[in-house]
Design brief:
By secondary structure, the protein is of the alpha+beta class. It is 22% helix and 23% strand. Helix 2 crosses helix 3.
């Protein structure tokens, strides 16, 4: 059987795939809910599938990639794939075998922050669970945390600007007990689920601090937690990396 070339046209490729895969023409027609006559017209080049969805169904029926129907060179195909993965990598997370993911890349589940939860409805961590994940380069993670189980959160608002802008991603190591001063993913009645810098005083007080000074309501901090209100502060994890949108 004659092989297709890079310059082969759609109808030539269609005929080749039907023959090479030893799929009966009526089987293809049945899967697409069209007549065998329609398939014949596509094969001889007198007609063309009427819309993109039909083309996608045809590709699925023949177990080929949509771009295989068209005269792209191997380099063209490679460029298309590289560009698609570059722009939409996380969309393909569940379709890429883990053994093909580079060793410096880590898969981390991600959720989204949200501002100001009412004090009587302060969200608990179980409401942060997400089925979505992101790829993260381990080189962006603080030394010593690259192999640990991590989570990520999309920042909402500008209170941590310029450290984290709106829609930037904070990568954090889940803990309940703080590890000293640093940036943490927290939840409070005032700010909701977000990232803040926490400073721990020797008397047990905790200062909550935004990088954006307009949120520092008390000079150099936003809010003070003492033993009277400490139970309203939930610490979810230490920030160990960032993915900046720009």
């Amino acid at each position: 059987m004659e092989k297709i070339s890079d310059n082969s046209r759609f109808y030539q490729r269609l005929e080749y795939f039907i023959k090479s895969k030893k799929i009966k023409q009526r089987t293809v027609a049945k899967k697409l809910n069209v007549s065998e006559g329609a398939i014949n017209k596509w094969k001889n080049g007198t007609r063309f599938p009427k819309d993109d969805m039909r083309l996608l169904e045809l590709a699925k029926a023949l177990d080929v990639n949509l771009i295989d129907f068209f005269p792209y060179s191997q380099q063209n195909k490679k460029d298309i794939v590289i560009n698609e993965l570059k722009n939409n990598l996380n969309s393909y997370l569940n379709h890429i075998p883990k053994e093909l993911i580079p060793q410096n890349i880590k898969i981390v589940p991600i959720t989204k922050g949200y501002p100001i939860a009412p004090i009587d409805k302060t969200p608990k961590e179980n409401k942060m669970q997400s089925t979505k994940s992101v790829f993260i380069d381990k080189r962006l993670i603080k030394e010593g945390y690259g192999e640990k189980e991590l989570k990520a959160m999309v920042m909402v608002g500008d209170s941590m600007s310029p450290y984290l802008q709106h829609d930037d991603i904070a990568v954090y190591y889940p803990i309940k007990t703080p590890l000293g001063d640093g940036n943490y993913v927290i939840n409070t009645p005032t700010y909701g689920l977000t990232v803040k810098r926490l400073k721990f005083a020797s008397n047990g007080n905790i200062y909550l601090i935004s990088e954006n000074k307009k949120y520092n309501l008390y000079g150099n901090y936003d809010e003070l937690f003492t033993k009277e209100n400490l139970d309203t502060l939930e610490i979810y994890g230490l920030v160990v990396g960032r993915i900046l949108k720009s």
